[in-house]
Amino acid sequence: MVQPYNQGLAWQQRVSTFALLAAFSSFTLGVMLPWNLRTQRRAEAPPLSQPVREIPAPVAPSPSQTAQPDAPSDAAPEEGTPATPVPTESSPPANSLGIPPIKSAIAQRTEGVRVSFQNLEDRRFNFAVPERFRGKTIKEVSLPPDRKIIALTFDDGPWPKTTEQILDILKENNIKATFFWVGAALTNHRDIAKRVADEGHALANHTWNHRYHKVSQAEAAREIDRTADLMEELTGTQTFYFRPPGGVMDNGLVDYVYSQNYANIMWSVDSQDWRSSADAIAKNVISTAKSGGIVLMHDGGGNRVPTVKALPGIIKELKQQGYEFVTLPKLLQMADDHMTHQEIAEQEKEALEMSGSSESGGVAQPSE
Questions:
Q1: Is the pLDDT of residue 118 over 90?
Q2: DSSP 3-state of 354
Q3: CB–CB of 331/294 below 8 Å?
């Protein structure tokens, strides 16, 4: 009984060895074929130091030439016969197998990767603030009257369970929000933070310790920069959006973020979810929502079960009212575009008024 087993094992080993050799040979052939073709073309090309002799194009033989096999092959073509273009040193050799030049293929692939990374950076890794909002405090923004846009924001996370539940609700409703992170919570819940970033939500700074007391500029820098550094380390994200704990404006934190060109984000819709039931939270948000508004809610820092319970109803009702939910970076960008259009319109109006005044000699004409 032992001998047949050993024979079978030896046969399996031989088959495996043969298969490995075949696979390796196929791989080697696939790798070397383009290289051999390229080497062959190089070998066939004349040295650059030698001039390339122009070879006359072949022409169709005449009946007399057909009868004379010893006629010279470089005889001049008959007058009026079109000549076929002849490859010169500057013309690349034809690629009969359709294999693209290696350098060209690598360059195209590299450019594609660069564009993809640039798109990712623009979309996720740099939450820049429009210039007009840098070093300013924003509670709400002005938008075109035909748009109903609102931003959901969540403070004090990332937090176990409730942050993930909120992410599930947002994903189900195809909504992106903005999360203001506390550094101390971030360092303890790194995987949750990575999920927030991976799902395309905007990230913002809420200090390291979430304290309200007055701080020196050095302490303010530590509170904010330490959190910013950890956010970038974990998610690759740079953000210039900040919210002071408790909305306190005069303890030194806001002064520091102004100096760093952050946007200091407050709110126009207070859910009061830190002290309210789910029904009260929903009522607080829905009753005060308006286009260009910023909603304050919390995903961490305590018991946020009422917030999780209220969120689906808030989203459903506001969607029925025609609202679109966006992140803070997108909200400020939309506001910046709208304000720019208004400024252009005002400048055009002033120019027309000045033009009319100059035509009348700068003096208002009396009406008849």
A1: no
A2: helix
A3: yes
